[in-house]
Design a protein that fits this description.
This protein is of the alpha+beta class. It has a single domain, classed as HIT-like (HIT family, subunit A, 2-Layer Sandwich). It has helices spanning 119-137, 174-189, 195-200, 203-209, 247-268, 313-318, 327-336; strands spanning 6-10, 15-19, 68-71, 99-105, 144-151, 163-169, 210-213, 217-220, 231-235, 274-279, 295-298, 322-323. It has a nine-stranded antiparallel sheet.
């Protein structure tokens, strides 16, 4: 397996990923992302997410400790969005952008990250995911709840306080439609079996792409990874969403998640930038939701400690990503990393 000029099928997104290890060796004179970080204060009175600070909306944060959630003051979606819509003109259709946007603070301390939290605090932060999902998915108008974290200045984060977000939409997003269709099609063609569970138990994944496996969860590099060190956390039993996870599964997820972000910190020699996505089943009444298997995806933007992955001409124009790292090599590297101590 040379790793040069190979197309791999990404079954959830139903698209090709180009694996081309030769591109990593190209001479590089472009922008670099250094590992030098400024030291953050434990409390920043100018930070709108810190306890006791008055936000731009005029609301003052309580003196919270641990995980804390509130409605986004400047939401992309709103329950109060105008409801008018038009589908008459296929060139100029429009509809309301209704939904809820929430901010999730992982800790009261401005200088924390999910990697640095105590065991008690990381479990509480992950429990907040489940609590918020259950609350928002129960709202009749909500069709999908996407929980995510944007971390690091490299991906454009303006507030470095440890936090994530939720977009709860009144429609199913494009990516979720692709994933749902793919999983339902696979189930129909394979006697009702789960695409992700079968992926997890395939010989190649078990032999070459597993990073970690514990009682309830497995961390893998996907066979058709789109980012150099992309990983997924997949439940060892099929779960449609975090709402279905037991207390023990949520605790194990928290500790497994933290080990993985610490691996990234070790690999990239700093508090590593990342985009994390929690892919829960849509919560509309579509019959194909029954085939969905939850997974959590890490999309680190770094190719190595200095080089960022950019989606330039070919990738932006084609929607076929080029990965300069063999997924099997990425998995081997991540398996060998010594865990960073909090």
């Amino acid at each position: 397996m040379s790793g040069n000029w190979q197309r791999r099928w990404q079954p959830l997104l139903q698209q090709w990923v180009i694996i081309s290890a030769t591109t990593a060796a190209r001479p590089w004179s472009g922008a670099t992302a250094t590992g030098h970080e400024s030291t953050l204060a434990k409390h920043d009175p100018e930070c709108y997410l810190c306890p006791g600070v008055t936000r731009a909306s005029g609301t003052t944060n309580p003196s919270y400790t641990g995980a804390y959630a509130f409605d986004n003051d400047f939401p992309t979606l709103s329950a109060d969005a105008p409801t008018e819509h038009s589908a008459h003109d296929p060139l100029q259709s429009y509809a309301a952008a209704q939904g809820r946007c929430r901010v999730l603070c992982w800790s009261e301390n401005h200088n924390d990250t999910l990697a640095s939290l105590s065991e008690e605090k990381i479990i509480a932060a992950v429990q907040l995911w489940q609590d918020e999902y259950r609350t928002l998915s129960a709202i009749p108008e909500i069709a999908q709840v996407l929980i995510f974290e944007n971390k690091g200045v490299e991906i454009g984060v303006s507030n470095l306080h440890p936090h994530g977000q939720i977009y709860a939409t009144d429609f199913v997003t494009d990516t979720a439609v692709r994933m749902r269709d793919a999983q339902a099609k696979y189930a129909r063609e394979n006697d009702g079996e789960s695409l992700l569970q079968n992926m997890l138990h395939s010989d190649h994944v078990k032999e070459r792409l597993i990073v970690e496996r514990n009682q309830h969860w497995s961390v893998i590099v996907p066979y058709a990874a789109r980012f150099s060190y992309e990983t997924w956390i997949i439940p060892n039993r099929k779960l449609g969403s975090l709402a279905d996870a037991s207390h023990d599964e949520m605790k194990d997820l928290a500790l497994c998640y933290q080990r993985q972000v610490r691996r990234y910190d070790t690999l990239f020699q700093r508090s590593a930038p990342n985009i994390t996505l929690l892919h829960n089943a849509p919560c509309d009444d579509h019959k194909d939701n029954e085939h969905w298997c939850f997974h959590l995806a890490f999309h680190p933007p770094l190719r190595d400690s200095e080089k960022l992955k950019y989606l330039a001409g070919f990738e932006s124009g084609s929607n076929n990503i080029v990965n300069p790292m063999m997924p099997e090599n990425a998995a081997a590297t991540l398996r060998e990393l010594v865990e960073v101590q909090a």
